[in-house]
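Worked example 4.2. Below are the chains of a multi-component assembly; read each line carefully before continuing.
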Amino acid sequence: MRLSCNYKSKLRSLTFFLILLFLAALALPAQAQESPYIVTYDHYLEEPGNLEIEYFSTFGTQRGGNAFHSYWAEFEYGATAWWTTEAYLDGQTTFGDSTIFTGFRWENRIRLLQREHFINPVLYLEYEQISGADKILKEDEGHDVEADYAAPNRLARQEHNHELEFKLLLSRTFKGWNIAENTLAAKNLTGGNPWEFGYAIGASRPLALKASPKRCTFCPENFIAGVEMYGGLGDRHSFGLHDTSHYLAPVVAWNLPSDWTLRLSPGFGLNDTSHRFLLRWGLSHEFSGFGSAIARLFGGH
Amino acid sequence: MPKPKTSLTLLLLALGVSTAQTAKVAPGPDNAVYAELTKAPQKAIARRNPLEQDPDAVAAGAKLFDLHCAECHGEMAQGGKKGPSLRAGEVQQATPGTLFWLLTNGVVRRGMPVWSKLPEPQRWQLVSYIKSLSPATKSDPDGQKAHP
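Applying the procedure described above to all two chains together yields the following structure tokens:
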């Protein structure tokens, strides 16, 4: 694909801006208490003024196509205690094919209720501009099946998708267990595609509920384990669990005292139209006071 | 259909707006935050700290405070730019149940997030630590002379 000078210039500006964000945040570490989910969202937002930089990978095998390694970088910022905004950059390598940038996403999560309730709703709004070669499988929707990902990159990348995605995130934490359910509705603005739907559910719990009195790396409270299940729900014309993919994935997160969080999740396809196996892992670091540091940079308080 | 350059511009603009939003809403030490303590329901106020007799609770709470709270409330809980002092009379006179309720629910409109993502025992450990702090006085406004 040939890029125009303007587009290249914008890409350079974006890269510069992201490097600036990263450098500015380096001096501001904070301890995270992150959930282990990779697809499912609970109702907890980023603390206001904090920036979390995350990297995730998915390794997938494909029947009728080459295995792939997809990855995304995520910049999650707590704008307020009720609004978190995130930018994603996606890419993938298909073995025996090529490595390509596949697009970006801008996501917002808005807490709807001020206090904790029996169930806590959060509204999720996302705009994504990705190519047909995107394979991060951040969610399953509509009639997504394994065969959709088998096309060579040079063909798949010619498809351009501009998509709006809405989710209702419902979550509750009780006696250390977090239970979360997400319902997804997405509309591809390119062409006359129908509304598509999907779901994700998850449950997780720290290995210990009480904190130990000393800082430690291997304390059980630093580990959160659980399981998530996600898949498509068809589209407006054909709603349901059939002709789409579904996955079951154990998840574990390790919150290190050095402010890093590691996540690991082997995922297993539950039907013939799903990838047989997905291995996901992620690394994230949270930086506190990022908003204040930027405000100070521009003469604020 | 938005062009790529338009979308990138919008994305950068949105990130800028959200950063500015943080700077705008970050509250200073504010009596309005203390006023939230008075909104705790009776059932919550009456709850007792199940870790009151736990010899490790204060030390564990101090560790959790350092990890999650010190950035806003100050390393000695004396208050900071974003969060009020936890040594103030309003906090020290509140029941453990009230503090637990506030930790669980946050004061979202004033910038304090909900902390129910910490398991209940950890929230009680935090309450134990906060209650162990010496109250601020006129001669020792930060309450540091008798810090545990």
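Take a moment to check your reading of the output against the notes. The CA atoms of residues 103 and 115 of chain B lie 6 Å apart. DSSP finds eight helices and no strands in chain B.
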